[in-house]
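Worked Example 4.2. Consider the chain below.
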Amino acid sequence: MIHNPVLRGFEPDPVILRVGDDFYIATSTFEWYPGVRIHHSRDLVNWRALGGVLDSRHLLDLTGVPDSGGIWAPGLSYADGLFHLVFTVVDTYAEGWKDLPNYVTTAPSVQGPWSDPVPLHGRGFDVSLFHDDDGRSWLLNMRFDWRPDRDMFAGIELQEYDRGTGSLLGEPRTISVGTAAGVAEGPHLYKKDGWYYLVHAEGGTGYEHGAAVARSRDLFGPYQPDPAGPLLTSRHDPSLELQKAGHCSLVRTSTDEWYAAHITARPYAERGRCVLGRETALQPVTWTEDGWPRIKGGVPAVTVPAPALAAAPVPPEPVTDRFDGLGPQWSTLRRPPTPDWIEAAPGRLRLHGGQSPVGRRAPSLVARRVTASRCTFETRLTFLPRTSDHLAGLTAYYNTRNWHYLYVTAEDDGSPVLTALSCAAGELTAHPVRIPLRPGLPVVLRAELDGPALRFSYSCDDDETGPHSLPLDLDATVLSDEHADEFHDGQLRVLGFTGAMLGLWAQDLDGTGVHADFAYATYQEDHA
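Applying the procedure from the previous section yields the following structure tokens:
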């Protein structure tokens, strides 16, 4: 059986692809490196993280992108013996404007090397490539219209793409404006039995989210929506365990079975906040006698039958990472993990202090996704701060405006102290906890997520009575898409598209040079 979500935690906008016996899912990464995460499976049940595609500034520059900007909804396809990745880098999205450069890169293997990205256009986002059986290829995207008196979601565009030159041909054509649900985006095109099937997201990214399908005998339409309604949605049933279902892509197995990869979310309360962000799930797809794809009931199921493929287990991820390199479970914020600020060696991850928590050019944060509502994260820190401008520790993080931080810094007299700081919608709270530490003595820091609650604790090497819990009752739900969304005077200011992360953070606010050493990181889910 397939147990959903198959990719847990912050893994949205899945595009699924089969090449031979191998299945790949690519997901959005927004402001995090490496850009575009890839997972691999041979049976659709067991998935292994391969890491990210866009792993250097040569391939992707995220300097200064806004929270939940950066990489939106990539498209992954295969033709001519090459993987083709198309992606949007969202540089601006607020106050009615969007700057949306789109690129294409190719590689002989999904693990690279990837070619220099070639710019395509900036008319919209959620790009994907469709390779027709006549040898021609087509780029799809939603069309963004900035004009205040227009619907900014102006329909689904199609334009020919020349695989040989990596360039666009002719003029774009609008092939669909979606359904009455509105917000047509995330398009993917498929061909079966002489029909072109357009699958796209609709209804926005929240609890009204869904996926629709339309078909045409002609590539350019007109496309007739499925008269049965949405292919998939949770919008009509708040009791479903999997909410926000939509944004589908389809795959056909070697055993001629079809599946849809889609977004979903698991709120902690009915229609509540989703700390785990938007996740990836799979649903079987059947075809009606008159040629429409259907998901049972049009709703997402937690457990579904797996395809008739040989089981292909993958090794479990180690609970404790001692940093013999930086594994695929880790991401870095807005800049790639280059040696000028991060050094991984067995038994030590050294972070050279970076910008403040609101800095968008050079933060020093390495983090991993929260994949369960109950989990713990622990590290052992050695840090010698000289002033209050030097900070290092453990964070439960969503974006620059929403996080909790357990950190070591220095008092005015230079003595080290352990304390905590929180930020919710940009408002700082300095918690009244200050625990003196011995200079140079390592300290173990621990975060425990217990549904909507977050607890910090610590212990020192010379203290046999620990760990000690900090007397703080922290709200984990500020680390959610719903809390991160911000509107002022009716204008969008901040989007929440990612998910909660647990990470290691260091700041050098006076620029005098300071580093922090982390001996290990342990992440463990509580399945009780």
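Residues 2-304 form a domain with the Tachylectin-2; Chain A fold (CATH 2.115.10.20). The radius of gyration is 23 Å. Compare this with Example 4.1 before moving on.
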